[in-house]
């Protein structure tokens, strides 16, 4: 019958039926996501040979195929991955940008208010209300810093949440792809090699969805299955097997979730930079390149502000006449011990003994030849300790601090002790096998970066070679991979300072392969607060004062003296021209054992009937003389002040460094022994403190932790005094110095101030947000373009399908008509024989 008209008509009827079914299938799936238009492929059946030639036997359906352009499909997948990447990144960047741009949460206004409060106290240093207002403004500023940091921490938790969600969705998709791989292989076999189009569509749609989460590479196998890879070759799908990703805490930072690859019981973390594209790649990029830097930058501003204000405040003097303490409170760790007198190799270490790592004051440790005296500078409290105790292995504990000295000091030597800010987070890797505790502190805020760091132990010293250190270490700046190699000799002489960070081993032992993650400033604001609660402890004044208009004591002998006495051993005390010692006075002997001090101009007795011991001191208002020989009753000796004759004037003086020198307030006189040289003397007793030094105009003169300069031209015999600022409650020089910190370039290697650094951080986030927004909008258009192109090729056109329905309906009707005609012809044949 295959060669008959019946066979031909039936084949046509069947073909038309399949075409109608396929077209109907296209129409009902016109809105199905990922559906590709299907079409039948038919051909004429093999003709039958006859004597008159080959006779056609109808039509056959070769296959039902989907209209799918693999190249365009890959374009869509790539565009989808980039769109997911940019959309996710823009969403998180917008959150951060809105946070920093929010005037109610922003840091800039509160920073300005704080320094306005500083200036108010500088204008009225004794005003209790101004002082209380400054403390309130400081609290407000710290609260703003903490609020911004807390909201950044919330954004960090959002990142973790999205990682967990994305990983879960990826695993769901890959398991479905693996299952479809199996179904496609079975269906293809059952269908005689014909493709199961709807299953293929579902799988391709899943691949597209997968690229929305992470960029993937698909390799089609000979059996029609897909192998799917991400990163640098991590296979998520191989045949009918799916390999899950995981979101696990980083061994280097448990608060940070990482994407891990799980296969055959093994879990390996995939580095963030290998996960590209998709929303997962976007959120990882945001965390690594923007959020980390922004939160670290905020912490860097906080530590720079706190440390510079603290350093300057400790250089001042409060209303109680004590040295200033720390203005802000934050965790401290490593001691900064400064040897103030003498040059030696001895070192001082100090550590807090309390679980609360905060300290208010600097300290001084001095040796008098018998015992050590530890002085807390904020209140002058002292603690005496024997050399044996402070040199012992456990050191000596005083004021909550454990002090330990290596090697005894010489009598008169001392150490100033202050504490540096501790790095916010020093995290040992969970994989470390050693028990070492690495100590990291911030030694130089001026060069501090906003990067995280990694400390790596490459090799430990096995002590096999005497005198040779074989250990080695690396410090890696994670923002750019810059590596500093440390050899054993360097490590044996701590601290190691890199980018303003000081590294040293606190306790325990390293094992090769141990690693530590250092986040120097992250969350610094979280543990920062205002330490001062008593307004009287605001150190607005400078602890020293200077005077250029001073007087030197000169003497002469009355012309009518009858005795043999002469003035000797003059102590030339440095006194202000406004002081009482500036008066010209005379010593008048009223008898062999008594004398008066009288005003040389008026004769008024200033100190009468004073006892005299031959050879003893005669002292009045700061100067001291002795009389050699035997003065007689009525003998007079004139004591006359002499003004500086040069044009030199002395600067107000600054405290050179912290910790401050405990001898800072001791009175010192700069005496010019010629126009080009000077010596330092103690004005209370005339003792020379420093031998004559050469003098160059404008040079620094430093002693006891202060530094001054002279302007003009000092003359031989001129003197200048530096002394304690007793009663200086109206002085505001230190508060003015704190105010100058607002515009001083103390950050970024001396190129930026607090406000500039914060503004740059805000601007960087804003610029990046805008750039990603532009790129995301462009990428969305590219994705739409690629999808439109795909739809133009593979999508269902309802108008076209409606036309096809009519065509295939006509074909079906025609085939049916052919059968009817064949039936009539057959009946005619049968009727011939009747």
From TrEMBL:
<dbReference type="InterPro" id="IPR053927">
    <property type="entry name" value="FlgK_helical"/>
</dbReference>
<dbReference type="GO" id="GO:0009424">
    <property type="term" value="C:bacterial-type flagellum hook"/>
</dbReference>
<keyword id="KW-0964">Secreted</keyword>
<dbReference type="InterPro" id="IPR010930">
    <property type="entry name" value="Flg_bb/hook_C_dom"/>
</dbReference>
<keyword id="KW-0282">Flagellum</keyword>
<dbReference type="Pfam" id="PF21158">
    <property type="entry name" value="flgK_1st_1"/>
</dbReference>
<keyword id="KW-0969">Cilium</keyword>
<dbReference type="InterPro" id="IPR001444">
    <property type="entry name" value="Flag_bb_rod_N"/>
</dbReference>
<dbReference type="Pfam" id="PF06429">
    <property type="entry name" value="Flg_bbr_C"/>
</dbReference>
<dbReference type="InterPro" id="IPR049119">
    <property type="entry name" value="FlgK_D2-like"/>
</dbReference>
<dbReference type="GO" id="GO:0005198">
    <property type="term" value="F:structural molecule activity"/>
</dbReference>
<dbReference type="GO" id="GO:0005576">
    <property type="term" value="C:extracellular region"/>
</dbReference>
<keyword id="KW-0975">Bacterial flagellum</keyword>
<dbReference type="GO" id="GO:0044780">
    <property type="term" value="P:bacterial-type flagellum assembly"/>
</dbReference>
<keyword id="KW-0966">Cell projection</keyword>
<feature type="domain" description="Flagellar basal body rod protein N-terminal">
    <location>
        <begin position="8"/>
        <end position="35"/>
    </location>
</feature>
<feature type="domain" description="Flagellar hook-associated protein FlgK helical">
    <location>
        <begin position="93"/>
        <end position="328"/>
    </location>
</feature>
<dbReference type="Pfam" id="PF22638">
    <property type="entry name" value="FlgK_D1"/>
</dbReference>
<feature type="domain" description="Flagellar basal-body/hook protein C-terminal">
    <location>
        <begin position="792"/>
        <end position="831"/>
    </location>
</feature>
<feature type="domain" description="Flagellar hook-associated protein 1 D2-like">
    <location>
        <begin position="343"/>
        <end position="417"/>
    </location>
</feature>
<dbReference type="Pfam" id="PF00460">
    <property type="entry name" value="Flg_bb_rod"/>
</dbReference>
<protein>
    <recommendedName>
        <fullName>Flagellar hook-associated protein 1</fullName>
    </recommendedName>
</protein>
<dbReference type="InterPro" id="IPR002371">
    <property type="entry name" value="FlgK"/>
</dbReference>
<comment type="similarity">
    <text>Belongs to the flagella basal body rod proteins family.</text>
</comment>
């Amino acid at each position: 019958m295959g060669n008959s008209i019946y066979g031909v008509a039936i084949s046509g009827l069947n073909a038309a039926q399949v075409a109608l079914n396929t077209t109907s299938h296209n129409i009902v799936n016109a809105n199905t996501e990922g559906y590709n238009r299907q079409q039948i492929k038919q051909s004429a059946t093999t003709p039958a040979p006859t004597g008159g030639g080959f006779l056609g036997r109808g039509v056959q359906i070769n296959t039902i195929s989907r209209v799918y352009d693999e190249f365009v499909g890959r374009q869509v997948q790539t565009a989808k991955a980039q769109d997911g990447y940019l959309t996710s990144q823009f969403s998180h960047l917008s959150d951060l940008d809105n946070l920093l741009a929010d005037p109610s949460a922003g840091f800039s206004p509160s920073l300005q208010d704080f320094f306005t409060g500083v200036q108010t106290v500088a204008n009225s240093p004794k005003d209790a209300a101004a002082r209380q207002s400054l403390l309130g403004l400081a609290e407000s500023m710290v609260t703003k810093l903490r609020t911004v940091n807390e909201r950044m921490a919330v954004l960090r938790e959002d990142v973790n949440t999205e990682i967990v969600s994305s990983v879960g969705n990826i695993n769901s998709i890959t398991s479905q792809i693996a299952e479809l791989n199996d179904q496609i292989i079975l269906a293809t076999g059952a269908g005689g090699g014909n493709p199961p189009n709807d299953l293929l569509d579902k799988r391709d749609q899943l691949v597209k969805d997968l690229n929305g989460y992470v960029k993937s590479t698909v390799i089609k196998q000979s059996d029609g299955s897909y192998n799917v890879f991400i990163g640098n070759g991590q296979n998520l799908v191989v045949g009918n097997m799916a390999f899950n990703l995981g979101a696990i805490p980083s061994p280097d930072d448990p608060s940070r979730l990482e994407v891990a690859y799980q296969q055959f019981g093994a879990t390996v973390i995939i580095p963030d930079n290998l996960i590209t594209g998709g929303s997962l790649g976007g959120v990882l990029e945001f965390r690594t390149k923007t959020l980390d830097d922004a939160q670290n930058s905020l912490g860097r501003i906080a530590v720079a502000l706190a440390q510079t204000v603290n350093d300057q405040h400790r250089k001042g003097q409060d209303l109680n006449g004590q040295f200033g303490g720390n203005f802000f409170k934050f965790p401290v760790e490593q001691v900064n011990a400064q040897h103030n007198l003498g040059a030696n190799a001895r070192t001082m270490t100090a550590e807090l003994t309390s679980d609360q790592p905060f300290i208010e004051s600097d300290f001084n440790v001095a040796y008098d030849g018998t015992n050590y005296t530890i002085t807390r500078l904020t209140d002058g409290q002292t603690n005496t300790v024997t050399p044996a105790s402070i040199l012992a292995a456990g050191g000596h504990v005083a004021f909550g601090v454990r002090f330990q000295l290596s090697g005894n000091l010489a009598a008169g030597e001392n150490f100033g002790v202050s504490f540096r800010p501790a790095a916010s987070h020093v995290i040992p890797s969970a994989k470390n096998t050693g028990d070492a505790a690495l100590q990291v502190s911030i030694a130089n805020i001026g060069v501090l970066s906003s990067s995280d760091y990694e400390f790596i132990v490459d090799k430990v010293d096995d002590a096999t070679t005497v005198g040779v250190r074989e250990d080695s270490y690396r410090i890696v700046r994670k923002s750019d991979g810059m590596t500093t190699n440390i050899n054993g000799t360097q490590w044996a002489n701590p601290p190691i300072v890199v980018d303003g960070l000081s590294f040293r081993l606190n306790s325990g032992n390293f094992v090769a392969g141990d690693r530590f993650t250092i986040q120097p400033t992250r969350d610094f604001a979280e543990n920062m607060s205002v330490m001062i609660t008593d307004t009287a402890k605001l150190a607005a004044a400078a602890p020293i004062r200077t005077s250029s208009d001073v007087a030197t004591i000169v003497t002469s002998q009355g012309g009518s003296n009858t005795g043999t006495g002469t003035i000797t051993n003059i102590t030339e005390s440095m006194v202000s021209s406004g002081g009482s010692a500036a008066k010209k006075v005379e010593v008048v002997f009223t008898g062999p054992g008594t004398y008066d001090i009288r005003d040389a101009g008026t004769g008024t007795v200033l100190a009468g009937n004073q006892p005299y011991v031959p050879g003893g001191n005669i002292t009045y208002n700061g100067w001291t003389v002795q009389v050699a020989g035997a003065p007689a009753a009525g003998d007079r000796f004139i004591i006359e002040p002499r003004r500086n004759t040069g044009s030199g004037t002395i600067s107000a003086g600054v405290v050179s460094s912290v910790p401050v020198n405990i001898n800072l307030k001791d009175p010192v006189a700069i005496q010019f022994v010629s126009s080009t040289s000077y010596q330092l003397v103690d004005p209370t007793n005339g003792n020379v403190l420093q031998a004559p030094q050469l003098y160059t105009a404008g040079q620094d003169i430093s002693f006891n932790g202060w530094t001054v300069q002279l302007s003009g031209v000092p003359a031989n015999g001129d003197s200048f005094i530096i002394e304690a600022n007793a009663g200086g409650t109206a002085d505001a020089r230190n508060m003015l110095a704190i105010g100058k910190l607002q515009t001083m370039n103390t950050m970024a290697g001396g190129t930026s101030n607090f406000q500039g650094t914060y503004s740059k951080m805000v601007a960087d986030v804003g610029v990046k947000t805008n750039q990603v927004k532009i790129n995301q909008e462009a990428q969305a258009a590219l994705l739409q373009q690629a999808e439109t192109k795909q739809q133009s090729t593979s999508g269902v056109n309802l108008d076209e399908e409606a036309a096809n329905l009519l065509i295939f309906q006509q074909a079906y009707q025609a085939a049916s008509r052919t059968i009817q005609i064949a039936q009539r012809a057959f009946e005619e044949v049968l009727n011939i024989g009747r």
